Amino acid sequence: MNEYNIIIGENGSGKTRYLINHYNEFQKSEDVDFISNSLTMPLGRYKNPFRLNGKGNYISNFYHSSFTGYFSTLFDISDLDSLFYTLEFMGFDPILHIERKPIYKLIKIKNLEERYFLEKQKEDIRFVHFGPSSLGYYSKEFYDRYYQYINSNKKFKLGKNTLNLDIETLKLHIEDEKKFKKDIKDIRRGLFYEEYHLSKKGVIFNLNEVSSGEIYLLCLGLHIRNFLNSNFNSGRKKTILIDEPENSLHPKWQKGYISFLRGITKYDKVQYIIATHSPFLTMSNYDTHMRVSEICDGTLRGIEQNSSSNSIEEIYLELFKVLTPKNRYLSEYCNDLLVKFSNGLISKNHVSNVIDSMIEVTFDDDQKDFLDGVYELLLKVERSING
């Protein structure tokens, strides 16, 4: 069974430092992955090369492009279930469209009989950074063998509820590319550019057109599976550290974040330690293996939480010490305090301290007036008890 430890606290309370210290302490004895959603830190930090360095990417388009490129690195044709699970969680169709476009083309050299040239496609600006501008001269035999292959786009459709015949075709196309690269004596550079398309309710669109939150969640699911699959037989404890997962995520996805992690983890046993400012992550406390903690003198200290709480206002006040404007939970909470005091379950000092703490965290004058009134009621209840 997975463990989920949610760390909350104000900025500067030491949440990120705790994650970094945990990573540095256990990276040699455990399989530890550090997932940060800050632009100044890598998405993943572990020994295998599945990482995205966001340093310097302060322009949103660069940040977005780096994640779409990272998707291509993470995509694993042997683990489509994880991809389809993530797509369905986001509300997309469990289908991936792939188009492999050749970066080079075979052309005949004018005035040179039986000589052919492998030249980079000039009409697509995206190919500028893909390898050298040409890969040399080749014979007619080479031309006849590979012309159709290297000069043609190839499309594949991978779906959850289909026979996925295109999977074998895609694998064959990739194997043919390896043979091609051996024949040109260059096995390092890719010869095709992959373009990915997703769909929602049958409407197909380019992967580059999805939101930053969508591409992040898509990469997150694949990243976690790559980490777990690459360390499957290590026999060591697996820990995934996640810093501020709420960035770019809609509140609906924040609330379902723990459920998403549980689904993408599958049957692996993983300890998750998550630092967050989001109250929505703490609303998933249906799992007995989830606990909420805060940093105290550099160590974790558990926070007692009302397991039946499903009110965002209650969680803000109970865990984050934030009193939201027009808080409907406030009157119920104060009434509960007065009832418990009148029944002798809590002391007057306890109620008074709670009221004072709420006055300190509210910025709403009406709430302050209301809490002053609650204090007056407390005194009246005390007088009635004492006769």
Cα(first) to Cα(last) distance is 55 Å
Our estimate of the beta-strand percent is 15-25%
The dominant shape is: elongated
Integer-rounded radius of gyration: 28 Å
Q: Into how many domains do the coordinates divide?
A: 3
Number of continuous helical runs: 12
Query: Which CATH-level-2 architecture of the largest domain?
Result: 3-Layer(aba) Sandwich
Largest sheet features: 6 strands, mixed
What's the order of the H and E elements? Answer: EHEHHEEEEHEHEEHEHHEEEHHHH
Tally of strands: 13
- Please report the first level of CATH classification, the CATH class of the largest domain: Alpha Beta
CATH topology of the largest domain: Rossmann fold
What strand order characterises the main sheet? 2-10-11-1-12-13
Low-confidence stretches: 39-64, 311-317
Look at the helices and sheets and give the structural class. alpha/beta
What fraction, in percent, of the residue positions are helical?
40-55%
What is the fourth-level CATH superfamily of the largest domain? P-loop containing nucleotide triphosphate hydrolases
Mean pLDDT: 76
GO molecular function, one term: ATP binding
InterPro entries: ATPase_AAA_core, Bact_Antivir_Def_Nuclease, P-loop_NTPase
Pfam families: AAA_21
Domain ATPase AAA-type core: 173-281
